[in-house]
Amino acid sequence: MLILITAAIAEESPEFKILKSIKAPQDLLFPHFPPRYCARAHLSGDVAEEMATAIKNLQLESPVFREYFDGKEFHLYLANSNYPEQTRELLSGLLNPLELINMAVESVIKYKSEKGFAELREQAAATHEISDTDGRSVYRIKLTPRKEYFGYSYNDNGAYIDESWLKELTVVVDSSSGLVYEIDARRQDRHYTVEATEKPAAREIILKYVFSYEIRNGIPLPSEMSFFTNDEPVLEIKALYGEFGKETVFTRKTICVQQESQKSCLDIGYTDFKGKACPSSKKRDTKIYNRKLEKAALLSKKAADLLRNGNISSSTSVLEELIEKYGDTPQAVEARRLLAKLPPQLR
Asked: What is the model's pTM?
């Protein structure tokens, strides 16, 4: 009975109906992608050049990258047989534009379920208005706390504890298609060690995500996301698409980090598509095995896993450790790029 009442309350809310109409990037893409495929990935741009230099300094052969789509996730990995096994996920997660875009939208979509929205209603007041943006009719949903905050999160990562909560969240959604065009959040958080006798004062940051879409064969595909903190540009992510038979695939992905007046980018182009899993790598040559590269890869993967779970502060701590201990590895090149622009409020 309680479940039925909860569902009824949520269904009566117009904000719930709007939230439920939101489409995640993966929901838009995956029905039009092959069930699985493998492609050769070509890295270019100034970030790729720095990574190539770092690999050369470690006396390793030039890297060969492939990307495998298994129907649910994209896996970008090193295909060289004489690299340590752990480094085959060198760029996984941290440099996957679709995953980063999806993370942003998922922060709102988690309220789509009846239970999620009912819990949200206990903590926040939800209102909406209809307006016109660039010739589109959009819903502007605004969430504000009923008391001091909402969306509280607590993560104990062993040595560190992360707490965060929202003071305000605004979502701009296309009224007819359910596409998200903007997310604005006023968030507070704190990051401290388990040994701390007192909690530090909370830090506040204004987050903004702006999304664009490419209409291809009548289908909206996520093509760009810009991320701002306190009105300063931080990340810019772009994706281009092509055809593989009758289905859609990525032809290029780009992620750029804004550093003061300069923009540093990594481009990933795709060729040689095969509608099957990527071939297994041959056994590596132990003579070329590099222990330092393996340890850096393990830290890189740990940071990626923390980032996927929304533990940004802990993720940056791991990246800082990676840079300090293995600063001459290709993993450290990208870690520096990500950390260079992140403001203190995100650490």
From this structure: 0.73
